[in-house]
Please model this.
Amino acid sequence: MFVDELTIKLMAGAGGDGCTSFRREKYVPMGGPDGGNGGRGASIIFKVDASLKTLIDLSYRKIIKGNKGENGKGSNKYGKNAEDIIINVPAGTTIYNAETNEVIADLVEYNEEVVVARGGRGGKGNKSFATHDIPAPKFSEKGEPGEELTVRLELKVLADVGLIGMPSVGKSTIISLISAAKPKIASYHFTTLSPNLGVVKLPSGDAFVMADLPGLIEGASEGVGLGINFLRHAMRTKILAHVIDMGASEGRDPILDYQTIRGELENYNEILKNKKEIIAANKMDLPGSIENLKKFKEKFPNLEVIEISCMNNTGLDTLIMTLAQELKNIPEVKLYQDADYKLYKFEDTKPYSIKRDGNIWIVSGKEIETLLKMTKFEEDEGALRFARKFKGMGIEDELERLGAKPGDEVQILDYMFIFKDDEYDK
Ligand SMILES: Nc1nc2c(ncn2[C@@H]2O[C@H](COP(=O)(O)OP(=O)(O)O)[C@@H](O)[C@H]2O)c(=O)[nH]1
Ligand SMILES: [Mg+2]
Model:
């Protein structure tokens, strides 16, 4: 099975900054607070698009970045939320955190979507901080940073159409001709994923994956040789394109060949037995092929037969169009029978941690780091609020317990503070 894989860095948008502002009225030197909140930053959302078959369309994107929310303004004007980014992927795409290898989401169902990188919330404007006790706060928050992470997308490509048939009937030739037809014929486009697998894209936007499934030998259904793997692959296709050498070259017998392979399919199980089958009558350029085809049709009057010749490059267009048409009538097979949709979220359980480096205390943790990033330290009241929360979270007590002394330095991300600095210790 072919695995399509790529890595992308996701940067969700930060929230817009809150605004610090006061109402201005005639004859009133300073009115009440009226700074609005910032808007939410763009989240990055992955969504299943049934028409996609591979990750090719995403392969040129290395970074996906969401916009920042709009900043809040005076007169209680809220900033607009940024528009979320939707990334379409094929069904069956698994999203991993590239650093930890943890599964973030397994996108299986059609139209299913999941937020993989959340946009930051907008910072609150000073109006939002007004309380009975502090009616005119002179501070506001910056927007919350958006989530950033690198993800690895993985898709196990399943073939919609499997080419089956006896050895040397022309399966590999069909795949190679279809792929080579790209520059000549505009009626479809073929992207080779591996030597025996490719995506056929039609101008209508329909696409399907076609695979050459070699290796069917007699006795496959009893597990002889390579054959059993072949049957497993065939199980996962929607249509079997059964290639027959109508030229009967090298002593082949079209009717017997057909019966032999049908026997193998029918012995394997009901699903294979009942799978849609189209006959590609190949080598129609060879002498005797027309006569052989006539006999074949008489013997099996109910089969859908398409005449082709790889040698003369005839009939392949019809084969492609017929397959595309037939695929529309076949419901999507459930990709993973027993694996239901699952979403794992990994979050820090500890609110913060403290490490010591000489006289510097290094504090880390999502909550305190986010608070720091959202604080406008140039506004005294904002800096004070930070100090209060720092204390409220119990970090100050914990530092003391660990032996921190007033005047020591405390580092959070790349900010440095003086521990128990009088100015903020209120
Ligand atoms: N005359 C003729 N020969 C063909 C045609 N298609 C394939 N062949 C030949 O049949 C042989 C076997 O083809 P191949 O694609 O390898 O068969 P596979 O074993 O089914 O993959 C090769 O020598 C091809 O050139 C065709 O339409 N006409
Ligand atoms: Mg071959």
Residues 335-346 have pLDDT under 50 and may be disordered.
